[in-house]
Amino acid sequence: MHVDSPEFEALYDAMKAFVDTCMSGHDPSHNPAHVHRVVSLANKILVEEQARRPEGQLDGASLDPTTMVEHALLQQNAPKGIASKVQKIVSHVSYTTECKDPAVVRQLIDTGYPELAVVQDADRLDAIGAIGIGRCFTFLGAVGKKYAVDGKWEMDNSIEHFSDKLEKLEGMMKTETGRKMARVRTERLNIFRGWWEEEMNDAKLTF
Amino acid sequence: MHVDSPEFEALYDAMKAFVDTCMSGHDPSHNPAHVHRVVSLANKILVEEQARRPEGQLDGASLDPTTMVEHALLQQNAPKGIASKVQKIVSHVSYTTECKDPAVVRQLIDTGYPELAVVQDADRLDAIGAIGIGRCFTFLGAVGKKYAVDGKWEMDNSIEHFSDKLEKLEGMMKTETGRKMARVRTERLNIFRGWWEEEMNDAKLTF
């Protein structure tokens, strides 16, 4: 199935609708718009990486706009090979999963799944910069209460998340293109944090 | 009741506890920490404005760390004059109320309630800059679904709120001190919006 074929287009449309339905109940930090941004970023990284590495190791057709699993693809008559490849990639995008065993991701990327690097980088770019900041606070508002330690549901939890995770993402980027974009967005996190500290300091009780 | 008296200190502590209780159920965009920041900012503005206008028109004791109404103060044995003054100020802090009839606020400030200018500016400073951005997205996540037009619960709603309201606040500042701080924070909104647009553009579908 070629990425320019009518079959691919139909599959793409069907899976896009599927994802929109699946994600529509989520708060704006993890809704269909997030997925669509990640898909676009992945495509942008793919195009640049393909230009950098014209030997053509990357398979564009596996970068479907989805987080769906194999069976959803098969139900839409996707080729088996693509369905299983996407499933494998989706299952290994997670930051938490990678932190537990980074070698697994490294090996997948080196042995048949180079697209995983592209998808991971795209997903992580949407977690940093201004959009990442917006998502971080939106998530806090929407579901942060559940994750509050000792009942502390405060905006500072989001700022702590910057250093707990967001500032680490740049160093985990897998593609040159992703790394370059991450540099810019991580600097934005730093600037924002500087503003935050200054403003919090302005609002300290002094009487 | 002087602001340095033990009676004032006891009243302050009692009302702080009252506010903490009242606001503790709110999401982090409008919780006790927000109130405490506004109190501190109000105090900072008060101190600077008093230095600028040493004729001493401002009554520090009416800047209690509260959004409570008259009866709550009276229950804590606050002097009647202070209780009614605070009530009047609290009732006129709102941006929406002011927009409906700006002359009312202007007149109150000019005729016996100059503290209203200080409290308003403090409250509005907490709506702009990095903290304002954080609060805006936290609010979106926590309760933005209720306010979504046509079911559009998206982070863009927060960015639209920048121009709908947040960018207008600087021009409505009532004190020189507040205006100076608002200038810095409004510029931060602009920078953040520039980042946002660039990143959203990066994540536009191009295939």
Short description:
With 207 residues, chain A is an all-alpha fold. Chain A is 67% helix and 0% strand.
Please give a structural write-up.
The structure is a homodimer of 207-residue chains. Chain A has a single domain (6-202), classed as Methane Monooxygenase Hydroxylase, Chain G, domain 1, CATH 1.20.58.1910. Chain A has helices spanning 6-23, 32-52, 70-75, 80-91, 95-100, 102-110, 115-125, 129-147, 156-164, 176-202. Chain A is mainly α and 207 residues long. In chain A, helix 2 (32-52) crosses helix 7. In chain A, 67% of the residues lie in helices and 0% in strands. Chain A is built from 10 helices and no strands. Chains A and B meet through helix 2, helix 8 and helix 10 of A and helix 2, helix 8, helix 9 and helix 10 of B.
The largest sheet of chain A is: none
Largest interface: A-B, 53 and 54 residues
Going by helix content, strand content and strand pairing, the class of chain A is mainly alpha
Number of beta-strand segments of chain A: 0
How many DSSP H or I helices of chain A?
10
What is the level 1 CATH name of chain A?
Answer: Mainly Alpha
Quaternary organisation:
homodimer
Q: Give me the CATH fold name of chain A.
A: Methane Monooxygenase Hydroxylase, Chain G, domain 1
For the record, the CATH architecture of chain A stands as Up-down Bundle
- For the record, the count of structural domains of chain A works out to 1
Regions of chain A with pLDDT < 50 over 5+ consecutive residues? 60-67
Helical coverage of chain A, percent range: 55-70%
Written as H for each helix and E for each strand, in order along the chain, the element string of chain A is HHHHHHHHHH
Terminal Cα separation of chain A, in Å?
70 Å
| Beta-strand percentage range of chain A | under 5%
